[in-house]
Every structure is written in structure tokens, then in C-alpha cells.
Amino acid sequence: MKKNYYNINQIDVHKFIYFLAITSFIIIIFNTYNFVLERSPNQYSDWLINYQGGFVRRGLAGEFLFQLHKLSNIPLDSLVLVFISLLYLIFYFYFFKLIKIIKFNFINLLVFLSPLSFLYPIMEQKISGRKDILFLASIFLVLHFLKNFDFKKQKYFLFVVFIITILTHSGFIFYTPYLITIFILFNIKRDYKELFSELIWIGVFLFLILLLILKYSSITPDSIVMICKSIENFLPNCGKQDYIASLGWSLTYEKNLVSTLWTRDGYQYFYILAFILAFSPLAYLLNSSKFTYKKIKKISPLFFFSFLILFTLPVYFIGADFGRYMFWSYLSSIIIFFFFAKNKVIKVGYKNKNLNFIMVVVIFLYCFTWTIPHCCNNNFKFIYKKPVQNLIEIVN
Known about the structure:
With 396 residues, the protein is mainly alpha-helical. It has one domain. It contains 16 helices and 6 strands.
């Protein structure tokens, strides 16, 4: 019996993806506005961490905004909202460019619309407005500006990006291999010794930042009081179960908190399962693709990107937001993959251009019905649960 196949109209698919991207941008900015308005202890307070109590991890962006507030007298909460919005504008500007170059098919759609892809912050609302966007925007900025620098000067551009991102959120240090990957793939044609020499300098610089973070991993209660005093007009409950209070936690204390979460029944197994489900289409696409350059042609893209994920494992031992960490890895991976596929560094293997009814159903069920909690839960989140419950209440 002949199957019904539908030829993928790339113009219509791109319009659909653009619509989703625009919608997600609007919703994320709206959510961020609400988090700033309500002085959220998670999404908002993290951006207010500054150096008014002394040098501390996570404080660079907050110190920049605080100094700008002092110079301009613009309310600090307004500056936070504008700064976050600007980062999202940067991200979506380059994200639209990325969408434009992709030829979508069944696997690409599964990969691009995965629960951990760009729609994750609206499926998991509490992700909106977090510092995640700083690193994701940096991925695009490195992709589009690194090649404009002379080879020997590219590391200095990376150093600036490392400082801004890592000193704003220390967890990003475990994701710097994604930025280093961009450097490697841009310069893969160069002599091994020349490339390796630059990588050593990059490694030494990151090691020094790591030592700095470890030295200032926590501050005294008096320092927290000084930070809170500097922002008391914008965070009335400062230091009370928010990110600023967490600055007093030692690394050992944080690890103990995560260990407590891990004692929940099935916590680790749940996120391992979630990882497998969310990354499977991407793993298939990577496995069916290959690098085009001789030097790395024998290395599977699947192995290459899996190796990058191994570098992120330490963050899972010192933090609890497993869903967020997977989101960083996933979105960074697909951005880099599709960018270098377009630049012919990677040859994409899967070429199917047709969809049948079953494929359409699979795309809908896989991409638009469930998501992964960002933290502290061991159950998948059914997206339509609340609307269905509200409908039942209305009917009853």
C-alpha cells in the first residue's frame, strides 16, 4: 500500500519556526518583566550580585549594572530588565540567521524543536530571565566575530568572553569547551603545533580563573549585608532565601545540598532518562554526519560533541538545576553543529525531505507535549496539564 508523503515546503517550515521564535521571544521578555516586577529571589536577585561587599563569584554583571545605576541614576531594576532584554535580542538576532540557513527535514525538526531547544524557557517558565542567556548569546557572538581577529589575537577575544561569562556565573567555566570548539573548528586547517600552542594559553588562562573562583567561592555574612545595603531599594528582602544568600555557602555545603537531592527516589535515573530522550534525535543526526576536513575526518561528530558534555559533568555535582545544565549543553551543541554544517566543516548525513502523517504526529508529540523540569523534580512536565485541569474545573 502506498504511503502518503508530504513534501516539506521549506518556506512554510521556516515561517513556522520564525513564528515560534518570535512568540518565544515575546513570552520570555514578558516573563522576565514579571520576575523583575515581583523582585523574584531566583530570576531577579542573581543579577544584583555585585562587588560592594568585596570580590565574589557571580558578581561581574551585577557590579557593571550597579555602577551604571550610580552614574546614570537609572533605577537598577530597569537596567536589569534592559540588559537581559538586550542579551535576548542579540541571541534571537543571530538565531534567526541560523534558522535561515537550515534545510529542515524530519530529524532536523526533531532536533531543532526538542524540549531542550530554544522553546525550553517558555515550556519551563522559571528559566526565563536567568543568566543562561549570557552564555548562549556569547556562543553566537564568538561564532560571528572570532574569525574577524588575527589567529594569534583570537585567544584574547576569548579571554574577554571567558571573564564576562564565568565571573557572572561560575558554572559557565565547565561550558567553555563549547567556545574553545568554535576556535578549533575555525582554525582546523592550521598546523597542529601552532593550534596546540594557542590552546595551552587558553587552558592556562581558564585554570587561573578557576583558582580565582575557588578562592572566592563564598563570602562572610558581613559582606552579604554590605551587598544587600547597596541594593536595598531594589531588593527589600535581600539575603533571605535568594541567590545573594547563597553567596555564603561553601563548596562543601553546596555539594551536600545536591547530595540530599540525589537521595530522592529515582532523581538521578529520571534525569538520565530525560537526557537520553531529549538528546536522542541530536545523537542520531551527529552519528549520521561527519567532519569534512582530513585532520578530523575519522572523528565522529557524535563522539566529539559527547566529549564536550563530559566536561560539564562537574557542574551536576555542585549544583541542582540539572534541566538547565542540559539545556545549556543542548542549545550550544545545535547552534555550533548547524553553523559549521552550513560552513561545510560538517557534512550532514540525513537528507530525507518528505514527511508522512506518522512523522508529523511524532514531531508534535515529541516537541510540543512535554518538557523537563529545570530542577528538583523527578517527573516529566506535561505542558497541557494546567489548561486541561482548568477546563475540567470549568466544565464541573
